[in-house]
Amino acid sequence: MADPVKNDRAAWIQGPSARCETPPEAIANPWRLILLGAPGVGKGTQADLLHQRLRACHLSTGDVFRAAGKQNECDLSPAMKAALDYMRRGALVPDATVWDMVRERTGCLRCGGGFLLDGFPRTLAQAESLKQLMETENLPLTAVINYELPVNEIVARLSGRRTCEKCKAEFHLVERPPKKEGVCDRCSGRLYQREDDRPESIKVRLEAYDRSTAPLISFYRELGLLLSIEATGSPESICERTLAALTAWRALTPASA
Ligand code: AMP
Question: What ligand 1 atom has the least distance to the C-alpha of 86?
């Protein structure tokens, strides 16, 4: 089997002055997708799998905050320090901070390989800002994938999730355990439990989702961009379901895609 494609996403994670080691190849009709869904529904895992198949880069705002959290405190701007406090509590970071960060990385949205936005936008204000930017840049979205899962399954997924410190691959203690406990199958990095996957933060995150992010479903439905996918079953079967739905979607909406 061919080696998995893994872009280091340096320009996204470290900021626009960094250069990606292996930028995705520009393609004729890149996929520009937003992944929506409650925390724990598996967006990160799906973004990773879809990246392997569609080549589009996995752009997660949460990953940018987590990378900032590993830096020396003195190197962080006051806005980023405040953002990390929100994140540790499981609360949403203020729109202005998130938007400054995304706007700075517009180059990643222009990337000829396309993109898979994961965890952004998360509020109507962020969605409006993104819409305006994409219109100005003439970058039509292909679709907005909304992953759907019952709330009890979401809580089970979040509390069992373990993430690789190095390559960010995700595992689950029960559903997708690593071959060796605490060690990433892909890169041998250490697996850890994200601070915001602890029970007290999970509750806050689900409330924030209901209040702030769920309204994006209607927003994108009204724009004719919403593609809902049932997020039950193995990650691989969800990915196949998504790819089949995307192929059918493109066949139906070639102009916007
Ligand atoms: P995630 O990995 O997408 O679940 O994000 C982890 C945390 O980062 C969230 O719980 C928020 O605190 C923060 N965060 C990430 N993306 C956003 C966003 N678009 N808007 C506000 N907060 C965000």
Answer: 12
Euclidean distance between CA atoms 162 and 169, whole angstroms: 9
Nearest CA owner, ligand 1 atom 15: 62
86 lines ligand 1 (CB under 6 A): yes
Helix (H) or strand (E) holding 98: helix 95-104
Q: Is 122 assigned a catalytic role?
A: yes
Active site residue 43: yes
Residue 255 pLDDT class (50, 70, 90 cuts):
low
> Per the structure block, which two tokens stand in for 115?
């993109």
Tens of pLDDT along 114-147?
Answer: 999 999 999 999 999 999 999 999 999 999 999 9
CB 116 within 8 A of CB 47: yes
CA 85 vs CA 60, 90, 166, 196, 201: distances in Å: 18, 9, 22, 11, 12
Residue 103: active-site member: no
What residues contact residue 187 under an 8 Å CB cut-off, 6+ apart?
A: 164, 166, 167, 169
Q: Which atom of ligand 1 is nearest to the CA of 94?
A: 21
Active site residue 161: yes
Q: Over the stretch 209-231, which tens digit does the pLDDT of each residue have?
A: 999 999 999 999 999 999 999 99
Provide the pLDDT for residue 227: 97
Token duo for residue 84: 């990390």
